[in-house]
């Protein structure tokens, strides 16, 4: 199944997506609510919802404005080094344990929303990533059982302000600027993709310029292994986000560095899932617009 949280003629809600059309599951059953939370939590049966889609009219997918799949996830946990060639281009040793960090909710934006280059630095970088949405929580999850805990897969651009990422041994500042982490728009359930979303082409680009191109089979820590590893130290909960790291080709490793510039539109694409596209804007322009309103 392909699902999208968005705002259309039927208002904000969860939409079932098929081809170029979408049906509001929220309109079909008010218990669904404005995002995937009720479905992920198991309060509403997804298969039963899909069977009720004929209660509402189809809307053109292009008419929807995307929203975050889960507006306020409990945790957003990211892998920093999960592709060997990306590890090497950053000058790191290949780790024996994943480099993990967390992102804040205020850093996350939906597909289509402006990706903000902060006024304090021009070093806004892109990172194409597979994003996992947890469906069933747990602690000490066995790797063999881990994929049963996945609700779906989506796209993520782990926008990173490199100058601030390197101010400290902890990456938190550079990974948490407001409006730098696009997610979505479509969430694909596991039955529509290869096991663990392996073997999918992953790419980032600006226009015809291909910035990154690899496959999810290159990940050091698979989805299952990541879930098992993370659940050793924290209880995973329905709706948590897990970002699976980025392949080589990031801007800071290019010579000269290739930073995202206001006026560009950056796209992340993963085979079988879709495209997450966001315009890049300068923070000072956002402030000027807000002040004029």
Fill in the keyword field for this structure.
293 residues, alpha+beta, Fumarylacetoacetate hydrolase, domain 2, 20 strands, globular, hydrolase activity, metal-binding
Structure commentary:
The structure is a single chain. The protein is 14% helix and 31% strand. Strand 19 and strand 20 form a beta hairpin. The protein has 293 residues and is an alpha+beta fold. It has 7 helices and 20 strands. It has 2 domains: 2-66, no CATH class; 76-292, Fumarylacetoacetase-like, C-terminal domain (Fumarylacetoacetate hydrolase, domain 2, Alpha-Beta Complex), CATH 3.90.850.10.
Major β-sheet annotation: 6 strands, antiparallel
The helix tally amounts to 7
CATH class of the largest domain: Alpha Beta
Percent of residues in helices comes to 10-25%
Radius of gyration: 18 Å
Measure the end-to-end span: 40 Å
**Fourth-level CATH superfamily of the largest domain:** Fumarylacetoacetase-like, C-terminal domain
Which blocks of ≥5 consecutive residues have pLDDT under 50?
A: none
- Average pLDDT, rounded to a whole number, is 96
